[in-house]
Amino acid sequence: MTGPEAERDTRVTLRTVVRALGLLWSAAPGWSAGFAALSLLAGVLVPLDAWLLARALDTVVDGSGRGAAVSAVALLGAAAVTTAVVAAVTRYAESELARRVALRAKGTLMRAVARIAGLELLERPAFLDRLRLAEQAGSGAPQVLIQAVFGALRAAVAAAGLIVVLAAVSPWLVLLTVAGSLPAAVAAVAESRDRARMLWGITPGFRREMFYGTLLTDAGAAKELRVFGLGDLLHDRMTTELRAIARAQRAVERRAALAQGGLAAASALLGAGALVWGAVQAVAGTITVGDLSMLVTGLAGLRAAAAGLVRCFGDGHHSALVFGHFEAVLETAAAAAVPTPPPPGPRLHTVRPTGVELRDITFRYAAGHAPVLRGVSFTIPPGAMVALVGANGAGKSTIVKLLCRLYEPTSGSIRWDGRDVAGLPPDAVRRRIGVLFQDFVRYDLTVADNVGFGDVRRLGDEAALRAAVRLAGADTVVERLPQGYRTMLSRVFGGTDDADGVQLSGGQWQRVALARSLLRDDADLMILDEPSSGLDADAEAALYEHLRTERGGRSCLLVTHRLSAVRHADAIVVLAGGRVVEQGGHDQLLAAGGEYARLYRRQADGFGRPADAAAG
Ligand SMILES: Nc1ncnc2c1ncn2[C@@H]1O[C@H](COP(=O)(O)OP(=O)(O)OP(=O)(O)O)[C@@H](O)[C@H]1O
Questions:
Q1: Does one domain contain both 518 and 541?
Q2: Which site in 76, 217, 257, 574 is 20 to 30 Å from 405, CA atoms measured?
Q3: Last residue of a domain, one of 313, 335, 357
Q4: Same domain, 510 and 544
Q5: Transmembrane region positions (predicted)?
Q6: Does 28 share its domain with 154?
Q7: Is residue 190 one of the residues assigned to a domain?
Q8: What is the CA(395)–ligand 1 centre distance, in A?
């Protein structure tokens, strides 16, 4: 991101600060109030300490007697004990507050991202960069903001108290010390802006570095990395990214060190001058020894408090800037979210059952991209099985994603029983669908979860799980597992005993994923994208037989390159270059001698038999 948007990201708005503090308060109101009170107390203790020390010294020097001296020193000791206890309790309160805020922030962020309706946002690099910063900001920024706000409160109270006690000795020295810390405050804000700009600039590099790092440690990628010898190459690419990130960070740190170093040296000089003046005054008898001690500790305390204030201001400014990303992601995600709670979806095939119709659909993935689908029209009649075939990249999986409302058509409409689904919440439509994606997810969880995730209402319903598993032909897989449905399908999260987790083969995984998509037996539409690509010949034949005879009235869209599997479909839609080039029954398309016949003959030739025989 560049230009005005980047500039906007280096400005803190009051709203962001208020929201960050709001998050803090909502996550832990009691701890927030307690932490504020402790910070105030810690602030008051600083000038009190300096004042008590001065009084104790004066009591000893002016000969007020043993009793007075002992009680003055005892008071000083009590203040020191209180300071130590307050510091320890504050540290604990601070970490507890941080834990609670991190929990709340992460939960809020992940819930918002999970509710994003489609995929478009999750494929936008700028959004992904912001999401990464938001993850960091959500857990870290409120904590830094807590430290900054309450640290500033502590420092301000301490500074105010010290100003009051020191003003009695030398008002102009106080004025000089306070004025001396102003340039540092300006430098802190400039540094925090510089840091925020740098952070945004290095985020794409961080994402790439994480990608390489994950590849290098991922068990799934390990085979290719080792056989192709990619380890060193990926490692080099990762370190190149890390070096670029380090260069950007170093530049900011250098600028900050120069500015801070210069200002700290100036402030130390000022302090030394003040002490020389104090010593001269004490020797001349203009001020007491107690006053001199108060000058020594008080001015040091005031300088520390001022530096603390500046640091808190800079940290607070920076964390508010970073928290802006958290806010921005929540806003963007909310704008793209499915409505909560989703209204109940209309049942398909009930009122005027006309099925699912794609009407003149054109679709491009992003503005500026060429259209992937151009004027696609076809219908999946109620209860029918329609096969979608075509070459790689023809647009088949894109149609699957559009039916699932993961993207919206650029033009044209999808109608369920004549009703345009664009007017319905995506969730309402999705509840009517059972889907197996080509790149289905392999959850590192139990069989029961892997199947049950197809319909969370039935997670614990063993009878339903068994029925779906049988229909998918996965029953033979589950029967052989050591703990049946409770077997963990993961070697990574298998448990402490290495034998606990099981790694399935590709085809076995496909059967489990298929069972997941079949679990919704009340769905109106089943979408199966390459359901048999990993299955052996027997399993494939059994699957299509099951789908033909045991669909229970569900319509089915079958996407496949295995043309032998589509012969018995009620209709076949042939896609080429994003257009429907033919549609009809198997015999009709074969007789037409077009694209389908060509593809079919090519596959039949592969088995060394004439297409007509293959068709029989
Ligand atoms: N998320 C995406 N962003 C941008 N372009 C995409 C995306 N997904 C797919 N495409 C493009 O859309 C076109 C159609 O892809 P699609 O996955 O729908 O083809 P397909 O017919 O399912 O192919 P295959 O048989 O190889 O699975 C391809 O040119 C692909 O590059």
A1: no
A2: 574
A3: 335
A4: no
A5: 21-48, 68-90, 144-166, 172-190, 257-280
A6: yes
A7: yes
A8: 6
Residue 347 has pLDDT above 80, yes or no: no
Q: Which helix (H) or strand (E) holds 387?
A: strand 385-390
Instruction: Supply the residue whose CA is at minimum distance from atom 3 of ligand 1.
Output: 365
Does 13 reside within a domain? no
390 conformational bin, left if phi > 0, alpha if psi -120 to 50, beta if neither: left
Task: Pick the atom of ligand 1 nearest to 398's CA.
Answer: 18
In DSSP terms, which residues pair with 582 in a beta bridge? 574
| Residue with CA at minimum distance from ligand 1 atom 8 | 398
pTM strictly above 0.90 = no
Ligand 1 atom nearest to 395, measured from its CA: 18
328 and 356 co-located in one domain: no
- CATH (domain of 109): 1.20.1560.10
Cα 393 to middle of ligand 1, angstroms: 5
Q: What confidence tier does 6 reach under pLDDT thresholds 50, 70, 90? A: very low
Spatial contact of 494 and 447, defined as CB atoms under 8 Å apart = no
Q: Tell me the CA–centroid distance for residue 396 and ligand 1, in Å.
A: 8
Residues 281-292, mean pLDDT to the nearest whole number? 83
- My answer on whether 353 and 313 are in the same domain is no
| pLDDT tens track for 514-557 | 999 999 988 889 999 999 888 888 888 888 888 888 877 889 99
Label residue 495 by pLDDT band (50, 70, 90). Answer: low
Spatial neighbors of 193 by CB under 8 A, at least 6 apart, are: 10, 317, 321
Question: 608 exposed, middle or buried (CB, 10 Å; 0-12, 13-18, 19+)?
Answer: exposed
Please state the rounded mean pLDDT for residues 377-406.
94
In 3D space, the residue among 321, 319, 323, 325 whose CA is nearest the CA of residue 130 turns out to be 325
pLDDT more than 70, % of the chain: 92
- In this prediction, residue 499 has a pLDDT band, given cuts at 50, 70 and 90, of low
Ligand 1 binding pocket (C-beta < 6 A) is 123, 365, 372, 390, 392-398, 438
Cα atoms found within 13 Å of the Cα of residue 468, Cβ hemisphere only:
34
Pairing of strands 525-529, 433-436: parallel
What mean pLDDT is predicted for residues 308-333? 83
| Contact present, 180 and 267 (Cβ < 8 Å) | yes
Residue nearest to atom 18 of ligand 1 (CA): 395
* Ligand 1: centre distance to CA 414 (Å): 19
pLDDT of residue 291: 82
What span, in angstroms and rounded, lies between the C-alpha atoms of 139 and 134? Answer: 8
Q: How far apart are CA 220 and CA 503, in angstroms?
A: 11
Residues 514 and 535 in one domain: no
User: What would the DSSP string read from start to end of 259-298?
Assistant: HHHHHHHHHHHHHHHHHHHHHHHHHHTSS-HHHHHHHHHH
Q: Are residues 164 and 234 in the same domain?
A: yes
Tell me: do 154 and 182 sit in the same domain. yes
Per residue in 182-226, pLDDT (tens digit) is: 787 788 878 888 888 888 888 889 889 989 998 998 888 888 898
Residue 1, domain member (yes or no)? no
Assess if residue 9 is contained within a domain: no
For residue range 118-157, list pLDDT tens digits in order.
Answer: 888 888 888 888 888 888 777 677 777 777 888 888 888 8
Structure token digits, residue 55:
């009084």
The CATH number of residue 549's host domain is 3.40.50.300
